[in-house]
Amino acid sequence: MRDLSYAREGHQVFAGLNLDLSDHRVGIIGRNGSGKTQMARLIAGLAAPDAGTITVGGVEVATDRKAALSTVGILFQNPDHQIIFPTVGEELGFGLTSQGLDKAAARQRALDILARFNRPDWYDRPIHGLSQGQRHLVCLMAVLVMAPKLIVLDEPFAGLDLATTVRLSRYLDALDPGLVHITHDLDSIRGYDRVVWLDQGTIRMDGRPDAVLPVYEAEMRDRGGRDDFADL
Description:
The chain is of the alpha/beta class.
């Protein structure tokens, strides 16, 4: 991100932000309203900066959308905000056909990713019959089938039960692409390579999890213990 400025609904989210993310696993933390979700959308190319540039693997994701599809994928908090099609096979094949693959090749790629996750019988399965955790898995497979260099996770475990969270965590831990993980769940990123703490659109702290997280936790506990709720 170079000299990045971005405003949304009249609110200046970022102003001249510069950030390089080259580590394999990066956690992004911060209070609500700090700019985490907007950063996720900008990295994925779903929003365009007002000024400055964002490149992922050499691709300017906001302007070269075709290249962006095979460069960066995003997994949202709510899978129903991401899923478009009525069946698993259609959902998995959509991005591939958008990239120019013929239907037969897209079907085979979809079947291959289903086999990888031990779900070979899901191709014709209706999305509406899947649980929340299963829909999350479909979204993850729809991202992975595109073979991106980077995956952005925006609170992927929110609302999931513990068993589903453990299973999805295991899938994510085994991935080859880099991860940028937006989260309030600090335990999920303690083993990461790097953590960036956003505070009102600026970088408050940036470094190893064992350096950043204790400082962040201490400040959040201090704020949570105050009687004055004016800053909530």
